[in-house]
Structure formats: C-alpha cells, structure tokens
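Problem: given the chain below (427 residues), write out its structure.
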Amino acid sequence: MSDQQNVPSLLRLQTKEVQVHVKMAFYQRRGLLHQLLLQTPRLSDESKSSFLTNLELVLTRSSRLRDTKAAFQSKTTPEAWSRKTTAGGAEEQHHGNYIPNAVGETEPQREPAAAEGLEEAANVEEGDLCDEEEEPAYEWWKSKPKPKKTRKEVMADLKKFLWNPETREFMGRTAKSWSLIILFYVSLYAFLATMFAACMCSLMWTISPYTPTYNERVLPPGMMMAPHWNGFEISFNASDKSSWIHYVEALESYLTPYNDTIQEQQNIECRENRYFMQDDKEESAERKACQFKRSLLRNCSGETDPSFGYSEGKPCIFIRMNRVLGYLPGDGTPINVTCVAQKGGPENLGAIEFYPHSFFNLMYYPYYGKLRHVNYTSPVVAVQFPNLKTDTPLTVQCKLNGKGIINDSPQDRFLGRITFTLKVGGY
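Solution.
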C-alpha cells in the first residue's frame, strides 16, 4: 500500500484522537470526568469491555497531544508524516500513531472531510488552550473572586436592601417576618427576665438581712487608725499650724459621734468587763448600745486641748478594731494594744500613753449589725506620744494582742496590726 493511500486514514485517526483528547483534557482539568462517565448510557458486558479498552488506548495516546498539535499548526505536508522506506525495502515507520489497513482494503477519498475535522479539532484545542492562558490560575474547587462594584452599584444595593419595592421587604424581611421574629425575641427575653427574677427572689428568701450566712473570712478582725490624711504618714512641724491643722480637723470630725451629749441621749451605761449579750430578743428587734463618751479619752479628747497635742509636738492617734458581726474578742479576755518603734529606736519614741485604757472593754461586744445596732459606736484606744524626739523619722507599729488574734500575717498588713511613720519637727 502506498504512502498516499495511508495518509487519509492517518489524518482521520489523528483527528479523532485530537477531538477525544481535547474533551478528556477539558474534563480532567476541571475534575468533571465523573460527569462524562455518568452521562454514558448503560452498556452490556461486551460493550463495557470495549469501552474500557478504548478509554485506556485514548489515555495512552493523550501524551502525544502536543506533538500532534504542533504538526497541525505548522500545516505539515502528508509526506512529513512518514519516513522514507529503507533501501532494503523495509516497512515504512510513521511519525504518529499509524495503524495500517488490512490487505486489499482501500481507503475512500475523504481528504476534504479529514481536513475539515482536522481544522475543527485544531480550532477546538486552540480555543481551549487560549482559555487556559486567559483564565487566572484559580483552583477549580475555589470560587472565583467577584468583580469589584462601583460606588453607584453599592448604593443601589444598599437602597434595595433597606427597602425592596418588588418584594416589599425591609432589610431583607417582610412585615410578617419582622413581626414573628420580634415576637420571638420579646417572648424569649421576657422568659429569661422572669426566670432571673424568680431566682433572685428565691435567693433573697434564704438570706437573712440581719445575720450573714458566712463570715469566716473576716475573722479575726483587722485594725485601723485615725487620722490618715496622707496615707499612713504623720509629719508636721509643731510651730507651723498649717502643717498639722488638717490632722486636728480629721480627728474632730472622727470624734463627733462620741460627744457626751449624743452618747447619753442614744446609748446606755453598761457593766464593764463583760459581754453585753442581747440574743434573747427577736432577730429584727433593735439592740441597745453601750456609751463610749469622748471625755474618756482625756488628753486626746480634744476638750482640754483642742489641738490634740499637735501644737506641742505630742500627737494623738486613735486605734480601733474593725466591726465583725457577732464576734466575741478574746474569748472573755480583753484585747490589748501595744505600740513599738520598728525603725528609729525606742529611745527616740519615748513613753507611750493610752486612753481610756490600753485594751478594748468587753462591754462593747458583740456587734449585732447596722440594722439592729443602730446607735453603735466602735470603742477606740487613744495613743499619745508625749516624749518624741523631734526631727527624727520613726516607723511605729501598733498591734492587737489576745486570744484568737493574728497580727503577723505576711499577706494582710492590716490584720491585727497597723504601721505608720511619724516625724515631728521642732520649734
């Protein structure tokens, strides 16, 4: 068989191969090969075997697509598809996938049709490749980015979102939808508010307004002092009234509830050195309070010396224990107060005087709370330093001492103790 007779068959075969490969490449590139298989009608076993065989053959030949397309685009003459036979008359070898016809089989003249199919396949593949070049390199499973809208389009979309006259929707919802969702949230929050109110009522019914459920964290009591105008630092010059007048005013305000007239009107005289127990009364009944008169503080009362010793360089301070409801300090023994010089030396601090005593009398305990102990005034211990060495900075610490008292806790510097600095200038 001559070369001219084999050329049409070769062209037809290559044309079909290109068309099939273009389709296969198209589906494979987009991961849609399964759609091609699903569209195939049901086949018999023999047809299925034939289909799989042909599919394997097509996949094997698809690797030669680029060489085939290059040949088509260069419009190579049919003679270039085959090589010259050898001098010994050996069988011709063709460049491409050549399947010779059977002996005696003639090939009909289909050059025009083959050329048309060839041109169509080349155009299809060329268009597909152009699409590949023009399309951005996005993965097929990812959505392509939307084109950026202009400002006019954005405003139009916003207006349509706020009110759509076609569907009569406001912000994407109809009147019925809005009414239903508002009703739902009103019902939801009304239910939550009711449940919260019920829980609070149940909790309040279990809590007494007069007695705390737990008060272990406030035992033993802490300690506080007055005055504390500038923190816990007392520094003044005895000859300069402006340097100590604010301390005097603070002490005067602090002692106002302790005035003798007020104490006599509101409180009663109690027996000393014993607890004033009033547990036999009803829980809500008002409790009486023992008198603590200001005059008991003597030199630190502000009555004999309105300057509380500050004008003479002999300052007074007041020490008191924090109130703890129901607390019985000392377990029958009064809690006493001691003050020492931590820095500066005891010789510079000198002797210390306490008024009315250096301890807290038991008759002011227990404390029954603000609602029942209406006129209660906490007992105080006045501490005066009459022999201070002037112009010497001192660090003074006062402590509570007694049974059940903790005064050395590293976590709380006010638990059972108070530390302050003291510096008095001379005349």
